Amino acid sequence: xxxxxxxxxxxxxxxxxxxxxxxxxxxxxxxxxxxxxxxxxxxxxxxxxxxxxxxxxxxxxxxxxxxxxxxxxxxxxxxxxxxxxxxxxxxxxxxxxxxxxxxxxxxxxxxxxxxxxxxxxxxxxxxxxxxxxxxxxxxxxxxxxxxxxxxxxxxxxxxxxxxxxxxxxxxxxxxxxxxxxxxxxxxxxxxxxxxxxxxxxxxxxxxxxxxxxxxxxxxxxxxxxxxxxxxxxxxxxxxxxxxxxxxxxxxxxxxxxxxxxxxxxxxxxxxxxxxxxxxxxxxxxxxxxxxxxxxxxxxxxxxxxxxxxxxxxxxxxxxxxxxxxxxxxxxxxxxxxxxxxxxxxxxxxxxxxxxxxxxxxxxxxxxxxxxxxxxxxxxxxxxxxxxxxxxxxxxxxxxxxxxxxxxxxxxxxxxxxxxxxxxxxxxxxxxxxxxxxxxxxxxxxxxxxxxxxxxxxxxxxxxxxxxxxxxxxx
Amino acid sequence: xxxxxxxxxxxxxxxxxxxxxxxxxxxxxxxxxxxxxxxxxxxxxxxxxxxxxxxxxxxxxxxxxxxxxxxxxxxxxxxxxxxxxxxxxxxxxxxxxxxxxxxxxxxxxxxxxxxxxxxxxxxxxxxxxxxxxxxxxxxxxxxxxxxxxxxxxxxxxxxxxxxxxxxxxxxxxxxxxxxx
Lengths: 474, 180
Ligand code: SF4
Known about the structure:
The structure holds 2 protein chains of 2 kinds.
Chain A: E1 2-6, E2 16-22, E3 28-35, H1 41-44, H2 53-58, H3 65-80, H4 86-118, H5 129-135, H6 137-158, E4 168-169, E5 172-173, H7 179-207, H8 211-216, E6 223-228, E7 240-244, E8 250-255, H9 260-263, E9 264-267, E10 276-279, E11 289-290, H10 293-299, H11 306-316, H12 330-349, E12 369-376, E13 379-387, E14 393-399, H13 401-404, H14 406-420, H15 428-441, E15 458-462, E16 468-473
Parallel strand pairs in A: 6-11
Antiparallel strand pairs in A: 1-2, 1-15, 2-3, 4-5, 6-7, 7-8, 9-10, 12-13, 13-14, 15-16
Helix pairs in contact in A: 3-4, 4-5, 4-6, 4-12, 5-6, 6-7, 7-12, 10-12, 11-12, 14-15
Chain B: E1 7-13, H1 19-25, H2 30-37, E2 38-42, E3 55-61, E4 64-66, H3 67-78, E5 80-86, H4 88-92, H5 105-116, E6 131-136, E7 146-148, H6 155-166
Parallel strand pairs in B: 1-2, 1-3, 3-5, 5-7
Antiparallel strand pairs in B: 4-6
């Protein structure tokens, strides 16, 4: 049995590799997406005071720290039994909008655009954001500024662009938003909205040229899971969980986060540090579902802001019964969400309550358990803590957004490898396509490693016991 | 340091959260100027898969927490003129080193994640890089030329250090960046 190893997968937020298994005739049999490092947050949080949790868990991810902050803050609010003031709710939501905007801009411009705009087969040494700056400086600048806008929302609300955990306190927030800062953000908002609209247009024009990719980049039926508002709209900050099947039928609705473990199970495979969540009613591995921008637009009936709603209508036409099934369209979904978040940020910034100075309460732990759930850029994020009467953490379970998509990743890389990889005439561009489908999901893996001293395009012939028989390096 | 040609810069991501890479990207428009002066020869945000020879400056995020990372950092050190520990995880071990409080911390953290909280196939993954018994700061394995503390360090400081080094000067770190 031969295998092709692509390692590391680059231009994703984390380190992983893909192994492609070949049949005797060198056609592709199967492919695996393997995550290769692990830090152990669930263990080392034990024994620490619960109010440290936002600050610790934000460090799980430098791209979506705010999603961890809001999920963790909600779990902590729950432990202290406090409903936070409306102003705090608005500010946390605003900060989360900033997070989604910057993260979606990052995936599109800094990580994926080199594939779309420079080309899948472009020189690998320059197929990156610096290559994009060189070739298309205007597009690159717009992308950089859109990401900056998102980061500046976070900074102006919570003090720092990355790991602004000091601002987050159980039951409240450390300081209010000043009018100056709100006005500054509002003054930059029109440019951000303009960039989002322009980028959507750019992307749609480009879409016409890639029908083949649309049909092979993880195009398969699955379930979809995400938060919705009480009336079924798009929700990213806090809400109830909805699950729809591949035909768009709602199979579970308004699930309280406290019930997550009745619906979501986790499996382990020996070849990856990323666990495999599955939809419990269907079992493992049949219970494959997707989360993230594509899933969120598939589970919701509307966005709730005018410009995003217009785009959503067009988006839904790409699928049957409003369910878009090609993972390629994660990109489009991401851009629509960015637009939605910019519109929502505007609504929040114009809300008179947002500048209220009453944001802090004094709190003590009164409950033994707390759960928080948010839609991180990449999907549903769950934090679940148990604490003793003094508020010392006894146990932690975190289901990280990207994990939910693990079963779907594996299916998608297999689909693309089968279509594009010809082991006999292996070329870098073919393998970049496999990586590029991974990028469309925008996985945000906990950190991992690079393989060194090893050639990236490696063909290994192994026997049925996995013993290496032959190794070819290209 | 480098005259006519662009400086060859690399970034490496070990056991960290990517926040230090994000602070690098937070240079925003300054990246456009930087692009004129540097070539990014290896990075998680670029596609070259093998750490190349003759790298002028390498910024390293993260602690050394598994056997492949140990190999990686030694490999990169040999090929780099100036190696920088970027951020608290690289400088002190920081977050990944929180597990060091447990004796045999590798076993403790793995058991919690893959056995106690798994519903199907509970097992510790084996076909993956092996965790070291502890997470270590970089300088415990290789010589480090500069340290930029912070979790993450401010992007302005990252820009300052790179610019100074490219100009052939020694950055003066006094009062520029603090832990946390
Ligand atoms: S120092 Fe902080 S920001 Fe940098 S990798 Fe470590 S946890 Fe992330």
